[in-house]
Specification:
single chain, alpha/beta, TIM Barrel, eight-stranded parallel β-barrel, 11 helices, 12 strands
Amino acid sequence: MYTIEMKSIAAIDLIDKQVVRLVKGKLENKTVYSNDPIETAKKWESEGIDGLHIVDLDLALNTGKNNTGLILKIADVVNIPIQIAGGIRTINTINKMLEKNILINVVLGTIAFKEPEILKKISKKKLCRIILAVDHNNGNIMISGWKEFSGLKLFDAIKLYQKLGIDNFLLTNINKDGTLEGADIDTLVRINNVFKDIKIISSGGISNIIDIIRLRNTNCHAVILGKALYDKQITIDQVQKVI
């Protein structure tokens, strides 16, 4: 039996204030979709998306630039939940974002794996708005722009951070990201067989509406739509009709 609460989330990946998509996180595989991220955010909201997943790839990949101001502007002009991800490295940045807008959720990856004690500095009231990015390559959790092995396996990471108070996990199979090769269904099923009382957000590989239905049937909490949405292989209206 699937959840009736599965949410649709549109990805807005930013490099140098442009909306882009990468394949497997590699800069050399970049496609630019828009020079106006604010209008892109408004467009997805107007079409009925449930939320936005905004990634600062400049910060994540240490290009020397950042899109922080732009992301906070987007938060000011839309009225749907936003997940902010990419290069968030300090408790001050985390608190600033959480205090900015009640609709903002913060996605942590590298900092949470390198300094798990940082989670203890976030109030329990706000910890529910923290999402842990469990980006994996064949079950190995990768950090630092997917260039470094964290030392943890996927299931060990979920178990550890669930004990630390995290119940929202963003699952990305790096080998599927931006490929349109289908969602990581097998991993989701295995996670659901082991863990209870957690929410999984699935990212990567979505290619058509069948993928959305298969995710729905895994009791997935939400799905992030990226390349398939931008390449018009699926529409938000189609997704909303099946979730």
